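Q: Structure tokens for this one, please.
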Amino acid sequence: MAMRVGYAAGAFDLFHVGHLNILRQARSLCDHLIAGVVSDEMLELTKGRGPVVPLAERLEIVEHIRYVDQVHAEVVPDKLDTWRELRFTHFFKGDDWRGTARGLLLEREFAAVGVEVVYFPYTLHTSSTKLRAALDLLSGRVDEHDGDGAAITGS
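A: Here is the predicted structure, written as tokens:
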């Protein structure tokens, strides 16, 4: 039986249980799991903002998760370029991509090179976006609204 090499990419910023769930599930379906940690520059390019936690620290955090066999700094936007370098057989993604234009394109491109795309349920109750918003609110970096809808600028 051929070795199943999995690749799970993400920002892994403000690491939370949703990240852990994806890595745990991914590892259960492969023999060797590579976690791709998206670089600060790629996050700026794709999401329009940098991470809270810098790449070097995110790499170290993810490297120490027991389900991860190898970490890879993802510094190119094209997942096929990453595949050409790492030659994984399975690509793991949260199911928020399933059925989207980006997800369908990814599936077609990977199918052409023999990579299976596997989706996992997105953890709805937590996300780095929600954590970032909570941190911004706590630090007063976001305008809050009083009961009448008037903006109260944080200090």
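A few notes: The chain has six helices and seven strands. Residues 143-155 have pLDDT under 50 and may be disordered.
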